[in-house]
Design goal:
The protein is an alpha/beta fold. It is built from eight helices and nine strands. The chain has helices at residues 15-24, 62-65, 78-81, 84-104, 125-137, 162-174, 190-202, 213-221, and strands spanning 5-10, 30-37, 48-52, 69-72, 109-113, 144-149, 153-154, 188-189, 207-212. The chain has a seven-stranded parallel sheet with strand order 3-2-1-4-5-6-9, sandwiched between helices. Strands 7-8 form a two-stranded parallel sheet.
Length: 223
């Protein structure tokens, strides 16, 4: 892959997506970022074009979104989405629509945020949808697909999540206790996930790769 290169990113208003957008906007290897959102970003980072689209019609915009690298940071919760059906639409359907545009436009690389425990046969609805999304991504003909499965994500969210607020406070005490096989359950900062994804944006290694939370943290610590 030649540098500098363009990147198309969806989910730049979310916790990880926003951090990643800021990091990519200051990398010399990135010429332009197409930040795809449903509403204006507000302050737009350097070298970024904010493209506002209807996510229900993503397949109508393949030429607008074309770039060598696609990054998907979409993610919701059942509570925020309002129903299981609405959650599936965001975390499965929109992700696959975006990925198929990447495939159709000849992208060389696709990065996607999933979740720890993702599995298409999981008894947990959230993990099952994430697993089905990963399974469907494997069918695409994109040279390099990178899947990131973080555990609990820490950071300042726009919306309040009571359980996560407690986790934010407890994680400095709990994380050191999670050792050995339990390290993968350590909470991880959104910026560390973004750091690991930024490294993956610049590294070309064909194939389908899955990074568990512990691996994500390790990659971020090398940056």
């Amino acid at each position: 892959m030649n540098y500098p290169t363009d990147v198309t990113l969806v989910g730049g208003t979310g916790l990880v997506g926003h951090e990643l957008l800021l990091i990519l906007s200051h990398l010399q290897q990135i010429s332009t970022i197409k930040a795809v959102t449903r509403s204006p970003l507000g302050r737009v980072p350097p070298h970024t074009d904010n493209i506002i689209l209807d996510f229900n019609k993503l397949n109508s915009y393949p030429d607008i979104l074309k770039s060598p690298v696609f990054v998907c940071c979409l993610g919701s919760t059942i509570k925020k989405a309002g129903s299981q059906e609405a959650f599936r639409q965001v975390d499965h359907d929109y992700v696959l629509d975006f990925a198929r545009i990447a495939e159709k436009s000849g992208a060389q690389k696709l990065l996607v945020i999933s979740a720890m425990g993702a599995h298409p046969q999981s008894r947990v609805f959230y993990n099952r949808i994430k697993g089905e999304m990963e399974k469907d991504l494997r069918e695409l003909k994109i040279p390099q697909i990178e899947i990131f499965r973080p555990s609990l994500i820490l950071g300042e969210r726009k919306e309040r999540r009571a359980g996560e607020e407690w986790a934010q406070k407890l994680s400095p005490y709990l994380n050191p206790l999670l050792r050995g096989p339990l390290r993968k359950y350590r909470a991880i900062q959104a910026r560390d996930i973004a750091k690991a994804m930024a490294i993956a944006v610049l590294n070309f290694q064909p194939g389908f790769h899955v990074y568990e939370s512990e691996q994500i943290q390790y990659i971020a610590d090398q940056r």
